[in-house]
Amino acid sequence: MNPITIDQQIISFNSHLHFPGKLPAGIRVMNPFKEPGQILEVMSTFYRKFYHDTHERRLILGINPGRFGSGTTGVPFSDTTRLKEKCGIEVKGVKTYEPSSVFVYDVIEAYGGVKKFYKDFYISSVCPLGFTSLKPGGKEVNYNYYDSSALTKAAYGFIVDSLREQLTWNINKDVCFCMGTGKNAGFLKALNDKERFFKEIVPLEHPRFVMQYKSRSKSEYVSRYIDAFNAYR
């Protein structure tokens, strides 16, 4: 019997994602894998291309999916532009630009390119489904799992169960790299103190923070990621 490859596990996990909690008023769950269109197919193509093996990966956790990254591609921190240009996978009829994706793919390039990076790392999120809220005037915006205590409470069990399932795969449990040195790291460290998922949590500046506030020093932050990865080989 052939061993189950990690792409099969990821695709099955994503395909069956369902948020069971009761959301606070005004908050909507964003599940791109349940939306009509090609996202499920694009996501499956990506993981079959880069994860069709049983090689151990180290885990990188973001916050939760955003509308213009994995919300349109099904792949964390990959907008349609990066997915086509760097990974050779096209999302037909859609073009998105997400600054966080630009930074992440600069890190990937500095590490040695997509094949090498994705063989060694698996990027997910503390909360694997995203959320949105409506601003006055009806504009939909991203909403993080920690943006209100009510949402954090509603999402807590889902977060724990999702991480626990992903860690049944061949994921290295010595270290987890956390994108975000503030609330995301604080939540994940407290969760890890309770659940003992990893031996160590290593916070790194979130790509969005770098691109929005530190873009002139982007290369320095790329180096910080690479140094952290190399320090925990």
Describe the structure.
The structure is a single chain. Helices cover 45% and strands 16% of the residues. The protein has 233 residues and is α/β, with parallel strands linked by helices. The chain has a single domain, classed as Uracil-DNA glycosylase-like domain (Uracil-DNA Glycosylase, subunit E). Strand 4 (130-134) and strand 5 form a beta hairpin. Helix 1 runs antiparallel to helix 2 (39-50), helix 5 packs across helix 6 (114-120) and helix 5 (99-111) crosses helix 9 (207-213). The radius of gyration is 17 Å and the shape is globular. InterPro entries: Phe_SMUG2-like, Uracil-DNA_glycosylase-like, Uracil-DNA_glycosylase-like_sf. This is Uracil-DNA glycosylase-like domain-containing protein. It comes from Chitinophaga terrae. Residues 53-228 form the Uracil-DNA glycosylase-like domain.
List the domain count as a whole number: 1
Query: Major sheet: order of its strands?
Result: 3-2-6-7
Looking at how many chains there are and whether they match, the oligomeric state comes to single chain
- Beginning-to-end CA distance, first to last residue: 31 Å
CATH fold type: Uracil-DNA Glycosylase, subunit E
Which architecture name does CATH use? Answer: 3-Layer(aba) Sandwich
Write down the secondary-structure element order.
HEHEHHHHEEEHEHEHH
On the 0-100 scale, what is the average pLDDT? 94
Helix/strand structural class: alpha/beta
At the fourth level of CATH, the homologous superfamily is Uracil-DNA glycosylase-like domain
| Radius of gyration, in angstroms, nearest whole number | 17 Å
Number of strands: 7
Strand content: 15-25%
Secondary structure: helix percent = 40-55%
